[in-house]
Amino acid sequence: MPITSLPTPPSTSNPSTFAALADGLLAALPTFVTEANALAAAITAMVAGGAMTIPYTFDSTTSDADPGAGKLRLSSATQNTSTVIRLDVAGSDGSTWTSVIDTWDDSTSTIKGFIRLVKATDATKWLIFSVSSIASPAGYKNITVAPVASSAANPFVNGDPLVAYFTAKGDKGDSAQNGLSSPLAVLTPTAAANVDALNVFTAAYDNYLILGQGILPAASDSLQLRFAVAGAADAGSNYYNQSGEAGGAISAATTGVVLTSGASVVSTGKGCSFALQILNANDAASLKVLGGKVIWQNAGTPTFVLNGAHTAYPAANVISGVRFFWGSGNNFAATGKIRIYGYNNT
Fold it and tell me: Which superkingdom heads the taxonomic lineage of this protein's source (predicted)?
């Protein structure tokens, strides 16, 4: 922030110019004091803010152009809705800050950090934005931001001295090997014949985990599953099922995966819960496999049944999702949840 130099002071050794020089000095003092106080406030704010601080003068123009040496402008006339901050590469202190500003998007996180704009002479006036990217037109920076908080919709007026504080966000951590994604789908059964997630699987995940809890039929029935191919459930004889843990050869193909083999799920009580893994979903040439555990209530006493579900699916298809249904065509009861996760490929 520049300070206007004071004029030559008067001297008793030159009486003929003393009065004129004294008048000039006194006339210049108000401007000098105002600028000195503003500089002191800016320096105090910068020291309090740490190393990532740059002084600017606010320019109320919103157009996409170089705001001019030492100036900063926002993309919206309603300041706290702006999505771009335009900074000249030179601050109002006369320093060039290009190399510093260029580090503000170095983080590998989606949000690179946060910018807080504060009026240097009044800390109660401020805006805070998150930073997502930086573009570099000639002579200035366009910083893409999202509003976070503000002291008012328009805390600054044209010509206000500002301090821009930047706080970096740390790099995004590496994904855990074979770790789970966030839920790709959360399904809530309704009074319908199917619970579908026919297009949930993607190339981003080859293997999937499906967790179900409290799934009930409208009338006692056997819970079954089919794979989806290109968004349509495959009802062909492509499923080779093995229940329990005894093992052995599987030679008879069926038209779906029978999850509750040997006993029906009753329409009252705790219902059916399961943990299923689907492997190799994206490899049309290789064998696709389903494996998991299923437990359900099959009598009102209550009586529970535990089953190991194992299915080979050799069809030359990429699996795009799944359909759950009841073997005798009953509707689902409107209760329970089914959540689908992907295993990270790396």
Answer: Bacteria
Token duo for residue 33: 């004091």
Task: Provide the terminal-to-terminal Cα distance of the chain, rounded to the nearest Å.
Answer: 51
Q: Give the pLDDT confidence of 151-197 residue by residue, as tens digits.
A: 999 999 999 999 999 988 766 655 555 578 888 999 999 999 999 99
CA distance linking residue 256 with residue 323, whole number of Å: 10
Whether the model clears a pTM of 0.70, i.e. scores above it, the answer is no
Beta strand 161-168 pairing with 113-119? antiparallel
All domains in the chain, ordered by first residue: 25-168 (no CATH), 185-343 (2.60.120)
If you ran DSSP here, which 8-state letter would residue 332 be given? B
114 close to 130: Cβ distance less than 8 angstroms: yes
Decide: 89 and 96 in contact? Cβ < 8 Å: yes
Please give the Cα distance from 228 to 319 (Å, whole number): 6
Structure tokens belonging to residue 57: 């003068």
- φ/ψ bin of 78: left (φ > 0), alpha (ψ from -120 to 50), beta (otherwise): beta
- Token pair, residue 242, equals 């093995």
Residue 303 Cα distances to 129, 217, 266, 271, 308, angstroms: 58, 16, 10, 11, 17
Separation CA 292–CA 210 (nearest Å): 9
Confirm if 344 and 176 have CB atoms less than 8 A apart: yes
Burial 16-40 (b: 16+ CB within 10 A, else e): eeeeeeeeeeeeeeeeeeeeeebbe
DSSP-assigned states of every residue in 306-327: EEEEEEEE-SS----EEEEEET
User: Whose structure tokens read 């003393």?
Assistant: 18
Assess contact for 41 and 117: CB atoms under 8 A: no
